[in-house]
Amino acid sequence: MSDLNYPAEPNKPLRPFPAVPSSVLPLAIVPTFNVIYDGNGNTGGLDPIDPINHAKGSNTAVLGFFTLVKDDSSFVGWNTEADGSGTSFAVGAGLTVMTNMTLYAQWTSAVIVTSETKEQS
Fold first, then answer.
1. Domain that holds residue 84
2. Spatial contact of 72 and 85, defined as CB atoms under 8 Å apart
3. pLDDT exceeding 70 applies to what percent of the chain?
4. Is residue 7 in some structural domain?
């Protein structure tokens, strides 16, 4: 019991705790942030999921659109605003994470060319 820092005998003083090496001191808590992907009107598929908790200032690659689909539309990238007025990112582009953020899928109308549309032009 003497290693619990109280006297083995009632008349002996307490021993001081040994110094704790700096390698054992608790680490600073570093906040982490998430990148959320939103299909932004998709009609099928699942939003990509970034499973990483990113430290502030860390770099990551923007994910692909995986199974996302939108009727009569083609995926063209991601944007920090749903209406496309924010910062745009291509699939695989570098992204510096500074806070929690949502990237919205950006879509363009798909023109389907058929034999009828060729004859009309």
1. 32-120
2. no
3. 70
4. no
Residue 24 included in any domain? no
* pTM of structure: 0.70
Query: DSSP per residue over 39-93, as a string?
Result: -SS-SBS---B----EETTEEEEPP--TT-B-TTEEEEEEESSTTS-S-EE-TT-
Within-domain flag for 86? yes
CATH code for the domain of 87: 2.60.40
Query: Comparing C-alpha atoms, which of 32, 37, 59 is closest to residue 50?
Result: 37
What gap in Å lies between CA 18 and CA 111, rounded to an integer? 75
> Greatest CA span in the chain, whole angstroms?
107
